[in-house]
Amino acid sequence: MTLQGSEPIDVADIEVSLEDIIDRDALSELCRSTQALFGIGVRVFTSDGTLLGGAAPEHEVCAYVGTLPAARIACRSIVATVRTTAADDDVVHPCFTGQAYRISPIVFDGRNVGRVVIGPFGPHGMPDLPKSFTEVDGRLDVGRAKSLLATVPRVKVHTLDRIVEHFKLALDLILFSGHKAFVTSKMHLHSVRESYRELEEKTATLEQSYTRLKELDRLKSIFLATVSHELRTPLTSIIGYSELLTGGIGGELSPEHREYAETIHRNGEHLLGLISGLLDFSKLESGTFSLHAASLQIGPVLDDVVKTMRPSADKRKVRLELEIDDTPCELAADADRLRQVFLNLMENALKFTPDGGTVRVSSRVIEQADDDADVGAAILAPVRRAVEVRVSDTGIGIPEGERGRVFDPFYQVDSSATRKFGGTGLGLSIVRRIVEAHGGSVRVEGNVPTGAVFVVELPSAVAQRSATSQLPPPPK
Predict the structure, then answer these.
(1) What domains, with CATH codes, occur in the chain?
(2) pTM for the whole thing?
(3) How far apart are CA 90 and CA 432, in angstroms?
């Protein structure tokens, strides 16, 4: 037999002992029923003489023998011999009282695993008082011994054979059932050990892979930071000199040359934005990204972002709408970083919205119940205020199955080499990290009938302070 994922197991190789496979309760019941049916005691011993079960009420004559010192010693010797006799075939061991014991081997799977002892009983033709009984102890009361011996049941040989056959047949059934359960248990244990060994090997492999991935991730962050920094310096010079050229500092340019210089400047600015995104992502990855929180309202931030993006929207004939809730709600936030968040979201919205479409930015103050409060306590718990900003567009939209992944670093819905829209795939990842650093959340929804909606929730300054005060103290 072979277990999946482990080495082959040969059932024949699983060596068992009698005590391993026998059901003690079933054995005791078998012994009691046999004794009750035939009136003769029965006991079962292992191969080393350990008693596993039995039912053998003491005969009156045996109780009397126990009162005589010499007879008691002789009786104990006989019992010890019977208990340890290893017989390959049925044998009868006599007692000085004239009684006898029938010793029958228990053979299982070709091995002698124990013995059944029937008795003591009176053999057919047993004398009324054997000479060995009268000579065992000088204090013996012959009359009493004779009368007590007469109460011992006599058993004929063929009857005894049937008793032993009946008992061993029932015992075989118990052993078969116990062996089946024992082998099943052993196989299960072997399977568990093999599974545990395989799990340990896989765990070790995963730990090595995890360590390697952490190292690669660290090297990636160092690479991004280094390359971005080294690219930014010469790129700043390219942008600066292109501005000088377009400004006529180096002399008057022909229309064709001016167009070249403007193209260099425009693409330089675009490349600088990509590099700045890489630098921000690197800082977020390394934990060196800092926030400078101050008290502010969301309205001026959104108004500034919309004014910044309006020229680009007008150029594309994209309608840009802004709706700000006048309800005051103080935020404790970094204005520059929030501006970066909403610029990124609006740039995305404009990029994926066709000419003539609409990009809408709206804000409102919402109230949230404390999710951590119990049902009863939630009724009395103060609500937490937050600002919800929605940036919606009428563009190509995001498939529902992709919405959970758009915030992953470097992920793009269309990652083919021929994709229409460029970018590094870091913008939304940076947005999520900045928003979460403010204690807020960001998600994406569908926009009926077309487009996407990015929803940013930022807790009020009061709610943010409350959440911070409920955090456990840092470990010392």
Answers:
(1) 11-196 (3.30.450), 212-284 (1.10.287.130), 290-469 (3.30.565.10)
(2) 0.47
(3) 85
